[in-house]
Design a protein that fits this description.
Blueprint: E1 2-7, H1 10-22, E2 27-30, H2 40-54, E3 59-62, H3 66-69, H4 82-99, E4 102-106, E5 115-118, E6 126-129, H5 131-148, E7 151-153, H6 155-159, H7 176-192
Parallel strand pairs: 1-2, 1-3, 3-4, 4-7
Antiparallel strand pairs: 5-6
Protein name: SGNH hydrolase-type esterase domain-containing protein
InterPro entries: SGNH_hydro, SGNH_hydro_sf
Organism: Paenibacillus allorhizoplanae
């Protein structure tokens, strides 16, 4: 069976179990059930822990974005301004390639209205959000992935199919239907890889 690693923030945590179920007959799917990848520097550390513990993966599918672009009070700038975000994405790419894995990068999902919501994975952190930020960070990430020849799972465009972008009440995370829609597309792109 192929070994698949899913990395990313609480959006990934919403669809990971569905992906595992969809790929159960052909793939072993790994992910952190207790913690999300938060910002890109944290995902870099988390990826290293999986590589150390489980060795080589055939495919690594990952996303970062919301935490990186978050301006967490009392800070006045994003946790990772775009140039730092790209720096850490490059480091993650390097480590995944060192592991010998195919890479798929997932874009950050769209936002309906500017606001903030608590991270739903128990960190106690409030995540600020703006679709303008999402567009900027996705644009920079997609440019990098194109330059690196990395497949993109465009969850941003996928979520536009729904008039509310499959957003739940906090306007950041997705409804169960949204997570299932993400899982179907994610499983397909993993199988294509």
């Amino acid at each position: 069976m192929k070994k698949i690693l899913l990395l990313g923030d609480s959006i990934r945590m919403g669809y990971d179990q569905y992906v595992k179920e969809l790929l159960a007959e052909t793939c072993e799917v790994y992910y952190d059930e207790e913690d999300n990848g938060r910002f890109a520097a944290y995902t870099l550390w988390q990826a290293n822990q999986f590589f150390r513990k489980y060795g080589k993966f055939d495919v690594v599918h990952w996303n970062n974005g919301y935490w990186d672009m978050n301006i967490e009070y009392p800070m006045v700038d994003a946790v990772h301004p775009i140039e730092e975000y790209i720096h850490f994405l490059k480091r993650i790419i390097t480590e995944i390639r060192r592991n010998g894995s195919e890479i798929i990068f997932a874009t950050t999902t769209p936002i309906l209205d500017n606001g903030a919501a608590f991270d739903n994975t128990g960190t106690g952190t409030s995540i600020a959000y703006s679709n303008d930020w999402v567009i900027q960070y996705n644009g920079a990430a997609k440019k990098l992935m194109s330059e690196e020849g990395i497949a993109i799972n465009d969850l941003y465009t996928l979520m536009l199919r729904d008039p509310n972008f499959y957003k739940c009440e906090d306007k950041l995370h997705l409804t169960e239907e949204g997570y299932k829609v993400c899982a179907v597309q994610t499983a397909k792109i993993i199988m294509d890889a």
